[in-house]
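Database export, one record per block. Field names are fixed; values are copied verbatim from the stored entry.
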Amino acid sequence: MPRSAPGFWRHRGVPAFCLLPLSLIFSGLAWLRRRLFAWGLLAAQRLPVPVVVVGNIAVGGSGKTPVALWLAAELRRRGYRPGIVSRGYGGSVDGVAEVDPAGEPALFGDEPVLMAALSGCPVFVGRDRPAAGRALLAAHPHVNVLIADDGLQHYRLARDVELVVLDEATLGNGLPLPAGPLREGVGRARRSALVLAHGPLSAGLRAALTPVPVFPFHLEGECFERLADRSERCRAAAFQGRRVHALAGIGQPERFFRQLEALGLRIERRPFPDHHVFTAKDLSIPDGDVLLMTEKDAVKCRAFAPAECWVWPVRVQIAPGAAELIVEKLDGPPTA
């Protein structure tokens, strides 16, 4: 579960059951909204290019952004020219805007800036995803497929392929908001084209997802890069004998910390809530120490990070066949 999530989301205790009436209302409204679009009583807006939605069914970090970057690279490798649209969570854009790869996360949101910097694709943000898509296509008419980051519940944007990123650790007590972390139930994932599983899934959850194809994935990194000069790289062995601090303001900081420990590092943990707005004080370290962080956090800390601040870039490693299935779905008939 995300560090900033309520503790009772982990278990079905008294606080969660007290909130169940609100959860039933939330679930009912979510179901009704989805059905109104399915029945055509609310209009989904179809763009002139195919749309692939990357989303999840629970609050918290499941790995959507790395998956969106992986998908952009896979589509480009197959001859597509993708663009990315995102809500721009944590940013302050009024309306729609193109994301500057070197822009301020406070304006565009940390994840859109990261995607713009790493994907090589145009990235547009806006609460109105269809408007963001139209603006992107007007500014970049060569784009022939759109990736909608975190757009599973944004039904106003018609989609051709739905891809659900699922981390069982984020499902908590399995109850809908606000009694639990679920935006929608597991059955919603079963209606997608495929599920990408971040980490192992229990036998019960795998059975609940049948018959949707499930592809496991993990995040993998090799070298660290100095934040002040990303061309300077080293491996974990370079930090042996030094005091190492690890900072993470992501959905699941503990996963990042465990990955560093798996590299043989002994670290002092500094977990922060997802999308935390960092200050120079948050990054302070004694002389001679080292500070390690994720790429998502690094885009917010470039201006005031200490000299001994290093970034650990990771990339998605997905079981074979997922990209081929997505392309196959893109070539098929559209869905509402």
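Remark 1: The chain has a mean pLDDT of 94.
Remark 2: The first helix runs from residue 14 to 18.
End of record.
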